[in-house]
Structures are given as structure tokens and as C-alpha cells.
Amino acid sequence: MGVELKVEDEHLRVRAARNVITPELQRRIAANKAELLALCQQREAPERARRQHEPFPLTDIQQAYLIGRGTDFGIGGIACHMYNEIDARDVDVGRLSRAWQRLIDQHAMLRSVVLPSGEQRVLESVPAYSIPVLDLRGQSSAQVEEKLAAVRHEFSTRATPPGQWPTFALQASLLDEGRVRIHVDIDIMTADASAVLALQEEWRELYLEPEKVLAPVPVSFREHVLAELASHDTPAYRRAESYWFSRLADLPPAPVLPLATSPEHLVRPTFRRIGARLEPARWERLKERAAEAGLTRAGVLCSAFSDVLAAWGESARFCINLTVFRRLPIHPEINRLVGDFTSNVLLEVDGQGQTFTERAIRLRDQLARDLEHNEMSGVRVLREQSRRREGFGALMPVVFTSMLGLRSRKSDVSGLFSWLGQTNYTITQTPQVWLDCQLRDDDGALLFSWDYPEGLFPEGMIEDAFSAWGELIGRLADSTEAWNERSCVQLPAAQRARRESFNATAAAIPEARLDALFLAQAERMPERVAVIDHGRTLSYAQLREHASALASQLVTLGAKPDTLIAVVLEKGWRQAVAVLAIQLAGAAYLPVDPALPEDRRNLLLQEGQVKVALTEPRLAERLSWPEDVEVVVVADIARGAALPERRGSVTDLAYCIYTSGSTGRPKGVMIDHRSAANTVQDINSRFQVGPEDRVFALSSLGFDLSVYDIFGALAVGAAFVLPESEATKDPASWLNLLRTHRVSVWNSVPTLMEMLVDVAETRGERLPDSLRLVMMSGDWIPVTLPDRIRRLARGDIQIISLGGATEGSVWSILHPIGQVEPTARSIPYGRPMLNQRFYVLDDALASRPDYVPGELFIGGVGVARGYFRDDVRTAERFIVHPKTNERLYRTGDLGRFLPGGDIEFLGRKDFQVKVAGHRIELGEIEAALLRHPALREAVVAAPGERSARRLVAYVVVAEGQAVPSAESLQSFLGATLPQYMVPGIFVHLERLPLSSNGKVDRKALPEPAAPVSRSTALAPGQGGELLVKVTHLVAEVLRRPEVDPQDNLRQLGASSVELIKLASLLEQHLGSRPKLAEFLMLRNAGEIAAYYLARQPAEAPKEAAPATASAVASPAPQITLPLEALGEDEELRRRHLKRTSHRTFSSQPVDAKTLGRLVSNLRPLELDGKRKYQYGSAAGAYGVRLYLHVASGRVRGLDGGTYCHDPVRHALVRLSDTGALDLMLHAKGNRALAASAAFSFFFVCDRRVLAPIHGEKWRDYALLEAGLMAQLLEMRASDLDLGLCQVEAPRAEELRGVFQWEEEHTLLHALVGGGLEWEEGSL
Description:
The structure is a single chain. Among the domains are: 48 residues, no CATH class; 79 residues, Non-ribosomal Peptide Synthetase Peptidyl Carrier Protein, Chain A (Orthogonal Bundle); 184 residues, NADH Oxidase (3-Layer(aba) Sandwich), CATH 3.40.109. By secondary structure, the chain is α/β, with parallel strands linked by helices. The strands form 13 sheets. It has a 9-stranded mixed sheet, sandwiched between helices. The protein has a 6-stranded mixed sheet with strand order 10-16-15-13-11-12. It is globular and about 125 Å long. The chain is built from 37 helices and 52 strands.
């Protein structure tokens, strides 16, 4: 008849051609439905049972978990699992174990494994499982705590290798007084949180009623996974795909939180949990308030979490990873099924809304729209983003998981495992997750917690942020006030107190005019030298006489307060006369550099509404002048006029300096006398500047550092020394002037000081002993510069970093520079000066917490009036704080508070760029580059269109240093920065271009040459076969019949899953694999082939497979004499597999006796009364010694620390208790390997032993001896089931202290090792 019957979701499905099903046939089928269902099920049962043990795909989330078990991404090398400790009493462990075995029999996923192929499978049979027991009864409390801590560490960091069963682990620790601690660890790839809740309920039932029979689960997780995949070909999925793809271009990144280290450098981290509890009464009040606002309880907590992330993050707009448990309704009993039903939604937080309630409602509505399209997981959304960016989309490592409302089906108890006892410890860890926020009910209360990897965030930051979240949750429960606040997240109390102390700068500095300070000194000491010029020296009396005469003339020309008179003069004594004269006449001076183009000069004169300009005879004739400007020449000889009648006040303008504007129109910064006088008097008092000092006035008059050079010196009776105008860029002449005039105070941008130091170092000269104070400001201070200055200067020299803005009266903040740590990112910005204040605020003008970048705002006496005749831009940059009513200047600079109380300067806001979706601070890369010993200067830019930017580093090599290669610089940066922050192009310059103020002129940096494609070198005879091989492997992974070598991998659909598979195939066929980070720069098969070709001479494949016809190989020489070879029997192959280099080790501890047996191969044997070693040493010197590092807890019977092996006594001499070495000492590619090792071997020679025997060749012979020792250990290690791997020797200098090496000790070679790791389990 052509009628097909089958069972779907317990329903009988009928399929037939049109008109076959008659009404009569339909009635008969309906009448016999039960019998037909049973018959169909009976016939399908064997086939269904057979399929249940076939491999099936991983879900999207499971794939992400599997990738995270590798070390190609940061926060990797770990499994996603949930670990609980429950303290029970009088529990029957045997009965508990039998109940768990019943669960294994009941639920197929408890018998499943993840296969190395990237699939999963339910095993047909597994061994019987019995809960292991650790008996700690009768032991001391210290012993018990130590052993329980070891169990906790083992379980909480556990990861089941692919293919190994079981994926869970349980243990019972027996304690005194009938107490039992139950340890339960479950891999979330086996069962998610909702499934674990159901499991624990069935476990309880089977424990309490051992004879209870559980009904079989009539649907499998395999069927659910396949049904979910099939749903991708439905209209609903296509609608979801369209929804998410339309949002990709504008989807914000994850929260940008402060980090202590790059996630790439955290391999197999330990996770920590911080948690709190909201008691039932307050939790009920919070739920009531949420309902009144039309919000769910989880929605309120998520919004509060988002506000805290915004407070501690760089932006209020970001995405969080929202966990959802998505069970498709493919069967009525789907909720009984155990498996990982986790999916995720990328929830956008836009930060909009004037109150908490408004923001929460916006978040609620966004989530509602997202959940309507949750057929497409967030994992797939990120993959598509990655493909479109031709790189890897940023991870979404901040997770929000609500388990509120998840309850056992048959119990009102919401606490996990609460039927067993009190849970005293819980932790979850998830690869690539930085912060995992979890909510759950607990007997009417709210439990909320964060899990995070140890070492990722700055110390104390997570605790502070979590405390702020808990405080906000409490306020939302207790009152309506927080619901209506704009900035509802409060700083921790300790930070609020530090901010108040930081800005407590009030001091009694006399209010004064700058010219009045000068006149007071001229009255006190008229004959003292005031100005030293190359052609003229003026005393205070002479300077007053010149200035008074000119001032009288200016008064007759209409000078009056708050008008500007231009100073168009080259550097020299006339500048001092001019600025003083203008102020004595009651006006303010406007510096205009005569070297400026005519149009620019005239623009400044026009903007400043200048009617009078002061200049010198030569410039008066040479320059062209606007018709409405009166040009006055500063005379060589004073006319003896009396001082004009004093007029004006401290609030009058002192000067106006024009700075560049982003619109192209300059901005005239108006500074009054009181503000500038506050700055110069603070500096003079703070650093005891007095009449005996001489200040080197190097800065141009149009740069506000010149304000201190002139008025700072004249305020205390000191003198300032002016270089010739032509010598302002000649550091050799500066050095001569410093000596000749015994200069004691230096004030400049850092670049000019660095130029002076370069000259002194090149000549082998010192800075003059008269120089006692160096002040640097206006740009980044290279972290190496202070120590370079100290090496050339007197012992008590003071080096000061100052900062602020022209709008803040020269300086507003300072930091005395002491010893600079070699690893320092930058010199601290410091603390505010007297009567000035500094703030780090967000976009809503709320204070930023410690470590969190924000915009710097200046308050206090130093804040400028505004911009001359420019009310619009004055209103933009000079604001009144809405809460404090304090007038502030918005600097446009970024900074952050450090816990010690100082501000760290982070650079201009416009120096932040986005490259491939990552927000990058260029100053951070520059600071890292400047730590390279071969570099003197470095600047980083990001040229190109927004969608195709690339990082370019411009570097200047230090005197006497070899030019480092781009590869070496990339490797150097990669040790401290994430891969996306490592520039791809390095441009070597003789010097960096400077502006007239001595700052780096970024606009003048040369355009880098276009990079040559890596694949252009692959001619057929130079790697063409390799290209064919790589292209074939790419096609195999992407399941395409063929691919073009130039096709972009991401455009072909390669996600991180496919790239990891490709990396494994490359290692299998070519002997080594690129790190996943390196794939970021390898866009296609051609570039991958070029990558391998470039490394063939220097990096031979490790343990490579035999070359095939398509593999690259050198032409084989003709064999003329066949040689006898050992037979390749199975034992030989086994020994080779064990002896080969091992890059992963077992997590189980190595026994100290086993390690001792291995090292015993280096001890001498007594033969015929003589000591004979098992390896050779030229001339019998034996000058190489073995040093060991033992990782804490990794060698049973041996404490963690450093040791030296005494071969004669065959004993280990303990040197230190350093249980963990800094992984940064290793090359980047070896850090994960070193982290997993149980021990490390270091081969070290003492040249005092070898040099007298071998002379200059001592190192060559030492390397030979070390090689023989290493080979002997490698050959013998396999017999002890130990694995070793040779690694590049770490940086020795950082190891000298922990190993007590002396100057004569040289590190030659290193090995890392541990127990062999084998895959086990039934497949």
C-alpha cells in the first residue's frame, strides 16, 4: 500500500502518497494505535540500541570546552567541571557507592567519553565503580588538614583526558566522630547543572531505598544532539541566524577589566571562589521590589552585576555570556535525561538609562529579544564574527549563570547535595572564562558567587568588585533609593578614604602675581645675576630697568588687564624682558614662534586679538605683519623709564599659550597670575630652589615649561641660562653650558634629557656635579632613563616626574622617581601638588576604582580660566561636577589609581585603537618595547583604515647595540603581551621625529613599506611540494574536495575547532605545530607552508613522521654500502615511543625514589678502585653539575624547591624552598610544558674547573658533556615510566638567586620531566 509507520516522540507518524490513506484506513489505524506503536517500537529497538553506542557530535558548548583543554588559548589546559565537598555524618559509604553505580547503569552519559576525534560516545560497558575511601581517623588535625587540602587541590584541578572513563570522580574521606567528607567532581561535558540536580535527587532516592527501581529513560542525549543539529535546517533557525548576523557589526566586546597578566600566560590555572549570602527576609524584599518594577529576580541581579562590571571596566557597553539550559521538547520525559544541555546567549549591555531601574528594564527587553532567537548559540555567533574579521573574534569570558528556580522534580530542597550534609566548598572552572557569576537558591536565601582564575586579576580587585556587588544587592533589597540612582555602585570604603587623603592638598601658599614675585627679588638682591644669555648677562636690576622701560611704552599703547600682547622673539634675553614688561603693564603675554609659517603666525595674532607685538630689529624687518598690529622692538638699551604704576590683581591673565586643537583651530589657554604663582612657589619650596640655583631654560616660550624656567627662577632670586637659538637641538652644546654656568636645575621633556644622556654616555663623560634636580614632564619617561641619569650624575640627584596640562598651570601632579623596577610598565604619575586635585572619572563623572582606567580631571587653583574668546570649547573641557560643584578640567588623558595611592598615567584617549576587534593602548606596547636592552626609543602606531589597521613599531637602537630582528622583538613582546598586541611590522629609525616642543611628532612617522606576502617565496623547487601537502591537509580538515592555497582560512569557514584539528595534523605530518596564536598571522595554506619552510634550517621537525612522496626532503645521497640494522620489532617501537620527547606529563606525583633512580645514572661507579662515570668528559674534568627544581606537591616524598645533585654521595643538597619558578623565564612555546612538569633539570658548568684545562674552548667541551648527560637521562627515563623533554635554557640571571649560582657558573641546557601520561579507557 506504500504506507510508512514510525515512532517519533512517543507519537505514531504516518506517511503515504496522496489519496492512499482512506477514511476507513485512518479509522483502523487509530483503533489499533497502541498495537501499532508497540510493533514499531519492537522493530526499531535493536537498531536504536545499536546506534546508541556510535560516536556522535559534540554540542557547540562542548566543543568550546574541549578546545579549552588545550593550551592554544589563555586560561586553558583545564576541564570544565564542578567540584563539591559535603560534610556528612554517619553515612554508609558502601551503600552510597552502590547507589552511584545504579546511576551509572541508569544514565548513558555517565558511561560516556569524549574521543580525541572531537566526538563523544557512550561506552557499551564500563568497569564496576566503587567510591574510593581515604581513612583519616585517628590522625592529628594538622595531618588531616594537609591531606584534605591535597585532595581538594587534586579534585578541583582535575581534567579527564580524552577517551578516558570515568569523567566523574568521587571519594569519601573518613574523619573522627562519625564524620565523612564526600568529594564529588563531575565534568560538565557529561552533565550540566540542571542534570546534576536531577542526578543528586535520584542518588538520594537510591541511597534511602536501595530496592527502588527507576524507570528507564526512553530518550538519549545522542538523539537530542542530533535533533538539535537537524533543527538548523528550519525556518526558526534561519530567523535566529539572520537576527544575530545583522547585529554582528555592532555587537560590543566583553567587559575590558584590569588584568595582572595576559590570559595567554595562564596555563592550567587554579580557580578561586568568592561568595556571599542574602538572608531570606532581605531576599524576599528584593523579589518584591523586582516584581513592582516589572523585573525578574535574576534580571535585577544581572543588571546589578552589569553595573559593577561597568564600574570596574573601561566601558559601560559590553557583552556578557548568559548561560541558558536548552532542552528541546523531543520527548515527554526529556527532563529526566542527563547530559550537557548548556547553551549561551551573548547579552548586550548598553549602559543607557539615567537610573538603575531604567537600565534593568532595557536589559530585560534586550534579553527577551535574544531569547526569541536562541536557536543559534552564542558560540556560533562568535565563530561567525571570527570568520568575518579574518581572525579570531574576541572571547566572551564573563559569564552569568542563574540557577534560581532550578529544583529537583520531587523535592522542595534547593541546595545541591543538601540531603547528604552541609556543603563546605564548591568550585567550578571553565576554560577561557575569566569571571563566572553564579546564583542559586539555598533554603530560602540567595547564594551568589564568582569563580575566577587565580593570578589573572590584580590583587584585591575581585574582592573589591564583589563587595561592591554585594553592597548594591543589599541596598536594592533595603530601599528604593538605589533603584533611582545614576551611579549606584559605590567605591569600597577604604578606596573612598584613600581618595580623600590623596586630594587633601590645601596649603597656605601666598596669592601673588608673577611679576610681583620678581620685583620682590629685584628689590632684595638687585645685583644678582638673573639672565645668562650667550651674548648678554642681566642682573635683577638691569632686567627690572629694561622691563620697566618697555612696560611704560606698552601702557601708552593701551595695555590693560586681560588683553594679549604678542611676543615674537627668538630664544634670548629679550624674551625675559618682554614677558615681564607685558605683565608690569597689566596685560598678558602671548608667545608666537617667529619660525612658524606666516599663515600660522597671523592666525595666532588674529585669534588673540593682538594689537601690539614685541619683536627684535631683525625680525621686525624680515617678517610680514598684519596692518592692525603695532610692532614694538625690544631695545638693546634701557631708556631708564620709571616702573609704571602698579595695576591689576592676582586674578588677571598672566599669559595665554595656544595649543593645537583637534579641529585644526588652535586653542588659547588662559592662565591667571594666582594659578601660575601657586605652581612655581610650590616647586621652589618643595625642592628648595633658591638664589644659588641656576635653571637651564631649554624649552621654547610657546611651551608652558618655559613659565617655570623664567618665573620660577626669578621668584627666588635664581638665574636662568638660555642656550643659543641655533643650539636648542644640540645636546653637546647643552652639556658645555651646564658645566660652564654650573646649572643646578634641569626642566624639559624626557626626550631632550635622553639626548643629553646619550651624548654624555657616548663621550664617556659625566653630568656636572652642580646638577642636583632634574624635572621631566610633557611625555612618557622611558623607564630606563632615570637609572641612566643616576649613573652619570652626583649621588644625591633628585629626579622628578611631573604632569598635568597647559590648562592646569604647567603642572598639577608629580612623583619623585626612586629605583625603577626592571619590569615597570611606566613611571607613576604621582600625587597632586599643593592646592590642586586630581580625579579619575568615568563617563558619568563617577570615581573609578583602583586599577580601572578613566579620564583624568584636574581641579583646584591651577585650573585655567578657559580658552581665549572660545566659549564653546571652554564649556566642553571645563565642567562643573554635578555632585560636588567643583570646577574641573577634562584632560582627555587616561589614568588609573593604584592601591598605593598614586595615579598611573596611561596615555591619551586618542592613543587607544582597535585592531581586529581588540582595544589596544599603544602606550602599553611602547612601555614593553622600551624594556628591551637594545632599544633606546620606541613609538607604536596603528595606520590603516578602521577595518584593516595593523600595528607598526618604530624603534631606535641604543648606542653600541646590534639591530634586533623583527622576530626577536616579537618574541620579546610575546613574553609579556597578548599576541594581538605584538606589532607585525618594525621600522628602524636613526631618531624619532620631534615637534618644536621636543615631543615625539607622531604625524611625521614614515609610512611603513608594504609587507611582502609570505607565500611569494614558495616556488615549485623551493617548497612547492610542501605547499601541496599543506593545502591537502587544509582541504581534509575543512571537508572540501580542494582549496586554493591563497584562500583565506576564515573565509573558508575555519573556526578555532578546525584550526586546532589542522594544527594536530600538521604536527603529525610535519613534526611540529604552530601555536594557535600564530594562526592569527597565517591567513591561508600558502602562508602556513611558508611558515614551515622558513623554519626548516633552524628548527628541524621534532620526532617527525617518515617523509612521504609529497613531503619536503633534501635529495637523498646514493647509497653505496648497505648497513646492518636492528630489527624493528614491537619492543623496539615501544621503547622508542616511551623515549621520545614528551610535551605533556601525568598530573600524578612522581615518587622520590623513582626520581632518585633516574638521577643515579649520573653518579660514578666504583670499578677497580676507581670512579667511573657512565658518560664521558674531555680530559676527565667532569665540570658540569646537575641542578634540580621540584614543583610543590609533584614529587612524593620530596619538598618543592631547588636542589643540587652531589654525584659522589648521590645526594640532593637543598638550596631554597622555591616551589614554583616564574614561567616567564621560559621561551613562550615552553611555558605550558614547564607548568605541567613535576621537575626540571638544569645542567650548569663552573668555568673555574674547565677553563684551566680547555682554555677558550671550555664552553664547547661543557656543552658536549651536558649533551651526554642529557642523552643518558633520556635513555634511562623510559624504563622508569618517566618522560623528559629538552627545552631552551631559561634566562639564567633570574635563576641565580634561587640556585645560589656564582658569577663563574654558566647555565648550558635544561630538561623538564614528569610521569608518562597514557590514554586509557574503553572505546
